[in-house]
Amino acid sequence: MISIVLIGTGNVATQLFDTFLNYKQLNVLQVFGRTDTSLAYFNSKTATTKHYNQLLKADVYIITVSDDAISNVVNNLLHLNGLVVHTAGSVSLEALSPLKNKGVFYPLQTFTKGKKLDFKTIPICLETQNKKDYSTLKIIAETISDVVYNINTEQRKSLHLAAIFVNNFTNYMYTIGNEICEENNIPFDILTPLIQETALKINTLSPNAAQTGPARRNDIQTMQTHLEQLRSKDNQKIYKLLSESIQKKYKNL
Ligand SMILES: NC(=O)c1ccc[n+]([C@@H]2O[C@H](COP(=O)([O-])OP(=O)(O)OC[C@H]3O[C@@H](n4cnc5c(N)ncnc54)[C@H](OP(=O)(O)O)[C@@H]3O)[C@@H](O)[C@H]2O)c1
Questions:
Q1: Structural domain boundaries of the chain?
Q2: Which residue among 55, 65, 164 is best mutated to probe the pocket of ligand 1, counting the most ligand atoms within 8 A of its Cβ?
C-alpha cells in the first residue's frame, strides 16, 4: 500500500482524492489546505490539516497548488522524508530542488471541481531523479490510469504549451462563437455536433489534413464579409491573424 498526503484542495486535488479513494492500495492519509472552508469537502473522509508541521509521515506528498505557489510550499516541506511531487505542466522538476526526493506527477487533462472524469484514459506524465522514486510514482499512476508516460521537464513544458493551443485557446474560440450566437439570438447548441466532429476527426486524420474553411480555400470574399460582420476589434484581429496563418501554411499545397 502507498500512503499519500495531498497538499492543496483545488480542482486537481479533489479529482485525485476522489480517484485514489477507489483503490485500497492507495491510502490518502491526509489533505493539507489553508482554510476550513477549502478542507470541508475532505474532512469527513480523511485527516486534514492547515499546518505544515502537522503533516503526517507518508510515502508520497502530492503538491497540487497554483504554479506560482509551489516554491513557497516547498520551503515549508524541507523537514519531510517522503517523495514530494508536483502536478504542474509548466514547472520544472528543479523547482523542487531543496527537497531530497522529488518528482512530477502531471495528469494531462483539464480538471474542474464537480466535473468527474474517468482517470483510466487520462495520460499521466512522470518524472523523477531516481529509479526507486519512478517505480513508486509508476505504481500510483498505473493504478489509476492506463496511459502513463516518462516525460522530462523540457518535454512536459512543450506538451503544456501544445495543450494551451488545443484546449485553452480552442475553448476561447467557443466563447467567441457563443457571443456571436447570443448577439444574433441563435442557440449555441446548434454548433455542438460541429464541435464534436472537429474533435473526433483527428482520430483518423492529421490536424493538417483536417483543416477546412475559407482561409484554407483562400476564399477572400467570404473572409472580408466575416471581418465586416465582427463587432469586436479584438475578434477581428483574432480572425485576421488566424486566417493569415492558415493561408500562409496552405499557400503552396
Ligand atoms: N486544473 C487543471 O486542469 C490542471 C491540469 C493539470 C495540472 N494542473 C496543475 O495542478 C496544480 C493545481 O491546479 P488546480 O487547477 O487544482 O488549481 P486550483 O483549483 O486553482 O487550486 C489551487 C490550490 O492552491 C492553493 N494555494 C494557492 N496559493 C497557495 C499558497 N501560497 N500556499 C498554499 N496553497 C496555496 C489553493 O488554496 P486556497 O483554496 O486556500 O486558495 C488551492 O487549494 C497546478 O500546478 C496546475 O498547473 C492543473
A1: 2-151, 156-250
A2: 65
Question: Where does 156-250 sit in CATH, by number?
Answer: 1.10.1040.20
The Cα 173–Cα 170 span in angstroms is: 5
| Statement: residue 252 has pLDDT above 80 | no
Residue 88 Cα to ligand 1 middle (Å): 9
Q: Would strands 102-107 and 83-86 be described as parallel, antiparallel, or unpaired? A: parallel
pLDDT, residue 116, reads: 86
Residues 6+ away with beta carbon under 8 Å from 253 = none
pLDDT score recorded for residue 16 = 97
The set of cell numbers assigned to 83 is 517523495
CB of 35 closer than 6 angstroms to any ligand 1 atom: yes
Reported as a single tens digit per residue, the pLDDT across 31-50 is 999 999 999 999 999 999 99
Domain 2-151 has CATH 3.40.50.720: yes
Confidence tier at 112 by pLDDT (50, 70, 90): confident
